[in-house]
């Protein structure tokens, strides 16, 4: 077996992906497939932490556009991420691999509070750690959360799982002439305004010297392929 390129990573999953074809809520077969991929990645020897969005349930920006304050809307979105973490945690543990949800919010009846100490402990024990609640603050995306948590726990990379196989010059689903990049610097990603992650996330990754690998989650085993250095994706680094 090929040794993994990275020994500790944060994987960023979109909440929308967990909805599957139904477009809203949690599609259990999709959650189970993602759980299988995460377990396979862990079995490669990589310590795995996961940040999940909440867009399959609530998007703070959309809620606030209908009259709810942005702060309240973002808080609702952060709570949605915790629900997604709990669903994925249950799927992982049902398959025989230990997992633990850590939340940015104090909610002892539901999940343990995120601390660097707790995250290090559970990763060292071989658990897949699910990081819910965003940063715990409004106005920050889960993309930024993934980079922040990666820097905090000493991860070697952020793996951004999307519905396309890398960063393109334009939306490849709308523009057939769009070109795919094999590699970009953080600055190029910001200046090019490539929307695969928000500018704050790219800027924080640049400041903390964290590489971001953008790849498609659509194919089973894609996470493991990236970790083995054979997957198709765009590396944003340097």
From TrEMBL:
Pfam families, per database record: AA_kinase (PF00696)
Pathway: Pyrimidine metabolism; CTP biosynthesis via de novo pathway; UDP from UMP (UMPK route): step 1/1
Region (Involved in allosteric activation by GTP), start-end ranges: 20-25
Entry keyword annotation includes Iron: no
Subcellular location: Cytoplasm
Domain Aspartate/glutamate/uridylate kinase, chain residue ranges per copy: 8-216
EC annotation from Swiss-Prot or TrEMBL: 2.7.4.22
Catalytic reaction equation(s): UMP + ATP = UDP + ADP
GO MF annotations, alphabetized: UMP kinase activity
Binding site for ATP: 12-15, 55, 59, 162-163, 168, 171
Binding residues annotated for UMP, in chain numbering: 54, 74, 135-142
Chief subcellular location: cytoplasm
Free-text activity regulation comment from the record: Allosterically activated by GTP. Inhibited by UTP.
SUPFAM superfamilies, A to Z: Carbamate kinase-like
Keywords noted in UniProt: Allosteric enzyme, ATP-binding, Cytoplasm, Kinase, Nucleotide-binding, Pyrimidine biosynthesis, Transferase
Subunit structure, interactors included: Homohexamer.
UniProt similarity note: Belongs to the UMP kinase family.
HAMAP family: PyrH_B
NCBIfam families hit by this protein: pyrH_bact (TIGR02075)
Function field: Catalyzes the reversible phosphorylation of UMP to UDP.
Protein name as catalogued: Uridylate kinase
Protein species of origin: Bradyrhizobium agreste
């Amino acid at each position: 077996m090929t040794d993994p390129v990275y020994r500790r990573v944060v994987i960023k999953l979109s909440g929308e992906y967990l909805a599957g074809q139904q477009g809203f809520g949690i599609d259990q077969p999709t959650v189970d497939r993602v759980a299988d991929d995460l377990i396979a990645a862990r079995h490669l020897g990589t310590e795995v932490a996961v940040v999940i969005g909440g867009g399959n349930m609530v998007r703070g920006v959309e809620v606030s556009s209908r009259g709810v304050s942005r702060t309240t809307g973002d808080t609702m979105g952060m709570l949605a991420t915790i629900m997604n973490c709990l669903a994925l945690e249950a799927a992982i543990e049902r398959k025989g691999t230990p997992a633990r949800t850590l939340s940015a919010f104090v909610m002892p009846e539901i999940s343990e509070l995120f601390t660097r100490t707790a995250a290090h402990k559970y990763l060292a024990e071989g658990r897949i750690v699910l990081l819910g609640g965003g940063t715990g603050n409004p106005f920050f995306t889960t993309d930024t959360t993934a980079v922040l948590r990666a820097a905090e726990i000493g991860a070697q990379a952020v793996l951004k799982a999307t519905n396309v196989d890398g960063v393109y010059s334009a939306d490849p689903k709308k523009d057939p002439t769009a070109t795919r990049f094999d590699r970009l610097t953080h600055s190029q990603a910001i200046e090019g305004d490539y929307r695969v992650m928000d500018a704050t996330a790219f800027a924080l990754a640049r400041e903390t010297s964290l590489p971001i690998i953008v790849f498609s989650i659509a194919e089973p085993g894609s996470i493991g392929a990236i970790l083995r250095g054979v997957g198709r994706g765009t590396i944003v680094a340097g």
